[in-house]
Amino acid sequence: MDDIKVKTKDMDREAAVEYVMNYYWYHILLGVLSAGLLVLGIYHVTWGRKKVDFSLAVVNQDINYERDERIRDGFSVFSGIPAKNIQADSDFLISYGDVQLEGINESAYDKFFFSWSAGTMDAAVMPESFYHYCKKQRGRFLELTSLQAQERLKELAGNRKNLFFMDNGKYAGVYADQTYLDSEYQRNDADRYVAVFPETGKHKEAAGMFLEYLCVTNVQYGGK
What we know:
Helices cover about 45% and strands about 15% of the residues. The chain contains seven helices and six strands; from the N terminus they run H-H-E-H-E-H-E-H-H-E-E-E-H. The chain has helices spanning about 1-10, 15-50, 65-80, 105-120, 130-135, 150-155, 205-215; strands at about 55-60, 85-90, 125, 165, 170-175, 195.
């Protein structure tokens, strides 16, 4: 700034402006871009961040945003949570262990476990083998009894003896093919899909409502 003052002290305003624009345009441009990025960053942190009251991750199904929106909207009707505050994301095609997929974006693996560790994943639908893989990576899941009383779980199960996924005698999840999700997701009888709840999820009340939503068979909410 002092250098500019020295070089333009004998110039009139018009000549000084022309000099600055000719010799310092690059610095001006960088300054404008930096200010713009700062404004965008402040907006994202304060006003631009989307409020999420429940987040569902779907692992190793086809990426289908229309289906994700149907699931989001159905749960919104059931729970009363605004659809705009529910996130259902099937962008998780992941290779792990003996399961090696072709042509996938490996960043999905990092995205999944970052969401887990950050507590921004309240529920997940995944192959049973991936559930066990996550446990080997020291991932911990909620027992369903921490979201619904055991008597309520039995009531929701009714005559469906194969509804709940059990792990060491504990209620660990819900088999997707025993819920309305069977009409949304592809089956794999050799490696069944389970709906489970990461322990780090921040929205336990909403997770409990989603558990009940999966067990409800009323067609009004998308059930069978």
